[in-house]
Design goal:
single chain, 447 residues, Rossmann fold, D-amino Acid Aminotransferase, Chain A, domain 1, five-stranded parallel β-sheet, 15 helices, 34% helix
């Protein structure tokens, strides 16, 4: 087992990893930008190192600075969390070259699954259902020809996309060329790769993802699903497990596909396979594979009792899973609401400022993952998510009531945030019935 791990991230996920390491008796090194000098993860870690100015490209995405800090402080492994460098194959490769362990998927797997066009082909060959689509679009002539074959509506997707970027929905033929050019430009700017392909756009679908763990001895275990259908502009707002759209038979089918997909990819560590589920037909289709820890991983932890961060670390250290698929049971129902420093009344405009008052909800099966503390000043340079409120209960109805109570108890003064918006959201009839789809929020609020 490792004796010291560097956490190459910030915010609540850095805090989450540090806490897991403390429970495992592992020393931690935090890296931070000049803007994060007073951040919670810096004070909780055993050691810390400033790696650059506020901009992420000069600090948290500065691979030489991160690797130098890890070497100087004697870290044996690096945990990248989610976002930032977590799916950077080059970073994973360089970490290994420096004699340290990257706590995540192998670089070759990150690279293969990061190419969404190649991932589609890998999954199709493994017998995993994929949505009707095209190969990479090389020119406008091919674009028009493939769009005609697939039919409208369709999605233009960047092969290197992520976080909702490099995606455009086309409903009318006249939108096709402008949307393709916009997706290409956005993907080129965000990922340095503008290559795009087409997929049939499925409406009234559920976004369901399956959590998996795979060890170095070839064991793959699927830890059930998360329903991530409540989205705004392809960004998830809340998640729940189990999905209200799933039954036992469908879960077994999706689990089998998940295991096949992981083996086809040569997977190692914690990962997530995302599917679109057509509720009308019960058919599901591969979307993508996330080769990292997900923001919403606490939902799975709450319903299975499996600590995903600890298992990431154990697997990276070469330890085998000590449980199998037959041991996995979804024993409760869990819901997670993401709390963002945004003003929903002003188009979800980001908010920053000093936390004047903070009260965190409590009680059985209530969890608030955050890096906030009273008098902390939220900097304007980073993602707007400031916390994740997670609850679990024996039934979905009980979990909804528990979440309503927890949201009412949450107090964050000093910045605008989405707590009240989430209270409204989980009170909507479509959410209460579990029938909401990926298009619900657009229909409800119009954006």
């Amino acid at each position: 087992m490792f004796s010291k791990i560097l956490i190459a991230n910030r915010g609540e996920i850095a805090v989450r990893i540090i806490r897991a390491c403390k429970e495992m008796g592992i020393s931690t090194v935090a890296v931070y930008s000049e803007a994060d000098r007073d951040a919670l993860h810096v004070s909780l870690a055993d050691e810390s190192c400033c790696i650059g100015p506020a901009a992420v490209r000069d600090s948290y995405l500065n691979i030489p600075a991160v690797l130098t800090a890890a070497k100087v402080y004697g870290a044996q492994a690096i945990h990248p969390g989610y976002g930032l460098l977590s799916e950077n194959a080059r970073f994973a490769e360089l970490t290994a070259q420096q004699g340290m362990t990257f706590i995540g998927a192998p670089a070759k797997v990150i690279s293969a699954m990061g190419d969404k066009d190649a991932a589609r082909r890998t999954m199709k060959a493994a017998g995993v259902p994929v949505i009707e689509g095209s190969g990479l679009i090389e020119d406008e002539e091919t674009l028009l020809k493939e769009a005609e074959r697939i039919g409208l509506p369709l999605m233009i997707k960047a092969r290197a996309g992520g976080g909702g970027r490099g995606i455009r929905i086309v409903r009318e033929r006249g939108e096709l060329l402008p949307a393709w050019r916009a997706a290409f430009a956005e993907a080129q700017a965000a990922f340095g790769d503008g290559a795009c392909y087409l997929e049939k756009y499925l409406t009234s679908v559920k976004h369901v993802e399956m959590q998996l763990l795979a060890d170095s001895e070839g064991n793959v275990v699927c830890l059930g699903e998360r329903d991530c259908s409540m989205q705004r502009r392809n960004q998830k707002l809340l998640e729940e497990s189990p999905s209200p759209a799933m039954d036992g038979a469908l879960r077994r089918r999706m689990t089998a596909c998940c295991v096949r997909a992981a083996r086809a990819a040569g997977y190692l560590g914690a990962g997530t396979i995302e599917f679109l589920l057509d509720q009308a037909t019960g058919e599901f289709y591969f979307m993508e594979m996330n080769t990292r820890l997900q923001v919403e991983h606490p939902v799975t932890e709450m319903v299975t009792g499996v600590d995903l961060v600890k298992w990431q670390i154990r697997i990276a250290a070469g330890l085998p899973l000590d449980f199998s698929q037959k041991d996995v049971a979804l024993r409760d129902h869990a819901i997670e609401c993401r709390i963002n420093a945004e003003n929903p009344m002003e188009g979800f405009c980001p908010s920053c400022g000093r936390i004047r008052l903070l009260h965190v909800p409590g009680g059985p099966q209530v969890r608030f993952d955050t890096a906030l503390y009273q008098d902390y000043a939220i900097p304007p340079f980073y993602d707007s998510m400031i916390g994740k409120l997670i609850v679990s209960a024996k039934t979905r109805e009980e979990a909804i009531r528990k979440m309503q109570a927890a949201l009412c108890e949450l107090v964050i003064e000093g910045v605008e945030h989405t707590g009240e918006f989430q209270t409204e959201l989980i009170s909507q009839p479509e959410f209460r019935a579990g029938t909401y789809t990926t298009g619900f929020l657009t229909q409800w609020i119009g954006s």
